Structures are given as C-alpha cells and as structure tokens.
Backbone:
C-alpha cells in the first residue's frame, strides 16, 4: 500500500505524546501534521 499521500493529523498538547506517535507513524512512512490543540487541528 502506498502511504505517501496519506496525512495523519496528530492533536495533543503534550509534546512527549506527540513525539511517541510521530516516531511510530513516520517509521511507517506516513506524512504527519501536528496541532497543539483541537481548535488549531480543525482550522
């Protein structure tokens, strides 16, 4: 499956949680977008 064009939005205000999720997903070659909170994430 080609994941190059799939983008996953990670929303969390805890940088440690973001790092764990991003490290895991990028190892599977997903593109990641990050938001610090839900309001930013849906804008």
Residues:
């Amino acid at each position: 499956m080609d994941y190059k064009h799939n983008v996953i939005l990670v929303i969390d205000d805890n940088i440690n949680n973001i790092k764990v999720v991003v490290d895991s997903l990028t190892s599977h070659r997903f593109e990641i977008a990050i938001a610090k909170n839900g309001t930013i994430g849906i804008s």
